[in-house]
Amino acid sequence: MDLPLQLDRTSVVPLHRQLTQQLRQAILDGRLPAGARLPSTRSLAAELGISRNVALAAFDDLFADGYVVGQHGSGTYVAHDLPVLPRPAMPTPSGAPRWLRPTAPPALTFEPLRPGVIEFRLGKPAVQSVPPDVWRKIWADIGSHPPPADYGAPSGDPELRAAIAGYLGRARGVACGPDDIVVTSGAIQSLDLLARAILLPGDVAAFEEPGYPVSRHVLLGRGARILPVPVDDDGVQVDALPSGSDAPYVVYVTPSHQYPLGGRLPIPRRMALLEWAAANDALIVEDDYDSEFRFDAPPLPALAGLDTSGRVAYIGTFSKVLSPALRLGYLVAPPPLRERVVRLKHLTDFHTPWPVQRALASFIQGGHLERHIRRMRREYAEKRAALRATLAPVEPLARLIGLEAGLHAFLELREEIDARDIARETLARNVAVSTLDGYYHAMSPRNGILLGYGGLELAEIVSGAAVLVDVIQRKAR
Questions:
Q1: Which of 265, 293, 350, 472 to pair with 329, CA 20 to 30 A apart?
Q2: Predicted pLDDT of residue 291
C-alpha cells in the first residue's frame, strides 16, 4: 500500500484518530478496494514515524467499525461488504482558460453498439486465424529472457527492422535496408511524426476526397490546411493537384486500396504522381494499410518501390495483417526526413515496447507472417465472394466497387435511394453499416454504403447482407 497519509502533529486531534479517519476515507472512496491487504502495524508505524501503539489503536477503531477484517496468520484486509462512495472528481477550471486554446480538431467519437448487432466495420481484421501454437511459443520464448536493462533505439529493434526490410523487398518491391526503417506504434503515429517533421502551421497538405478521417484529423491537429483532391473509381485524380507556387508540401494517398472507396491507383497514375512530386518538390505519404490482401487482380508496386528521387514516405502497419491491438507499424522515409523523424520519435515515446517488437521479429523471421497472409487471402476471398453473391439481387439498384483488394467494399446506391435512410433501417434490424458522412472534408457528392467484412464470420456476412438487400429493395419500391 502506498497511500499519501499525512499526520499533523500540531493538531488537537490525536494521531490515531487522524490515521483512522484517513484510512476510513481511503476505503470509502475506493482507493483501498474491498479485499485490499493493509500493511502491518509495525511497517506502517515505521513508515509514518509513529509508535506502534498509535497504529494499533487506529486498526482497532477500523475493526470495531467493520471496515477491516483479520485473517489469522495472513494480515488485515478491507471488508468486502462496504459501500463505495464516488471518488472525488478532478478540479476543473472555471470558464475557458487562456492556455487551453482551440488548437486541436474535434475529437472523433465511436459509439458502442448494442450486443448482437452485425457490424460491417471498416478496418477490422479476423484475428481468430493467427496460429495460436506459434503465437504462444513466440511469447514463451520472449518471456524466458529478462527485458533489456536500457532503452532501445528510437528507430526500433534491429532484428525487427531487418525482418521488415526483407519482407518489404519480397512483398512490395521496396528496396530498403534496416537503417531505412523506423518502427512506430502504428500508422497514425507514423503520420503524426511525418507531419511534425514537415509541416508548419498553415502549410497546405493535399488529401484524398473522400479519405481516412483519422489521418485527416492528424494533419489538422498539426496545423495543416487541407486541400481536398477528388477521387474516382481508380483512386486519387493526379491531374487535380495544383502545381508551381500553389503546390502543397505533402500529399496523402492510399494507392493500394483507396480509403474508403476501394479503388487501386493504376500504374500510369502512380508514375504521374511521382513526376508531379519531383517537379513540385513535394512529398508523397503512401499509406499502404492493407495492400497484402488482393483478389482477382495482379499486384501493383508500391509508390515507394517506383520512386527514384526520394519523394515518398511509406507507411505500413500490422493492424490489418494481424491485429490493431498490437499497436505496431513502420515508416520508410528518405534519409534526411528519417533522421528528423527518429529525433521526434525519441522525444515522443523514446521507443516502441521491446516485447512486441521481438515477438513480431520472430513471427516474420520464422516465415509465419507470409504463411498467415496467404491463409488469410483465401479466407477473405471466401468472405468477399459471399458478400458479392448475397448482394447480387440489388445490382440494378446499387453498384459494388472496391472488391479487388482490402477488407471492405463500397456499395454505391442510385440517387433516389438515400444511404442514411438505409443505414438507419438496417441498424433497426441489428445490422450496422456506415455511410460516407465524415469521410469527406466537404459535402459528400456520392451516395452509398461502406461494408467492412474482414472481421465478420461467413454466416454473419450472408445474414447481414440479406437484411441490406431487403431494406434496399423495399426503399426502391
A1: 265
A2: 84
Q: Which CATH architecture has domain 132-370?
A: 3-Layer(aba) Sandwich (3.40)
**What number is the average pLDDT over the span 435-441?**
92
Interval 227-260: pLDDT, tens: 999 999 999 999 999 999 999 999 999 999 999 9
* Whether 236 contacts 258, CB under 8 Å: yes
- Looking at the chain, the number of H-run helices and the number of E-run strands are 14, 16
Count the Cβ atoms, other than its own, within 10 Å of residue 377: 14
Q: What is the mean pLDDT of residues 273-295?
A: 93
| Residue 277, all three cell numbers | 512530386
Q: CATH for 118-126+375-476?
A: 3.90.1150.10
* Confidence (pLDDT) at 314: 97
DSSP 8-state secondary structure symbol assigned to residue 434:
B
Residue 215, φ and ψ in degrees, nearest 5: -65, -40
Amino acid at position 136, single letter: R
Nearest Cα to 40, choosing from 90, 87, 80, 75?
Answer: 75
| C-alpha cell at position 248 | 502543397
How far apart are the C-alpha atoms of 409 and 420, rounded to whole Å?
17
Predicted structure pTM score? 0.84
Residue recorded with cell 534496416: 178
Tell me 111's DSSP state.
P
Name the fold adopted by 15-78.
Arc Repressor Mutant, subunit A (1.10.10)
Measured at the CA of 187, the angle between CA 433 and CA 334, to 5 degrees, comes to 140
Q: Residue 213 pairs with which residues in a beta bridge? A: none
By 3-state DSSP, what share of the chain in percent is helix, strand and coil, each rounded to 5? 40, 15, 45
Residue 292's alpha-carbon distances to 170, 262, 320, 450, in angstroms, are 12, 14, 9, 20
Choose among 204, 131, 160, 406: nearest CA to 292. Answer: 406
Say how far residue 325 (Cα) sits from the centre of its chain: 7
Q: How far apart are CA 425 and CA 467, in angstroms?
A: 9
Q: pLDDT (tens digit, 9 = 90+) per residue, 420-429?
A: 999 999 999 9
Q: Where are the domains of the chain?
A: 15-78, 118-126+375-476, 132-370
104-136 pLDDT, tens digit per residue, is 666 666 667 778 899 999 988 988 778 889 999
Q: What residues form DSSP beta bridges with 316?
A: 330
* Residue 52 CB partners (closer than 8 Å, separation 6+): 41, 42, 45
30 vs 32, higher pLDDT: 32
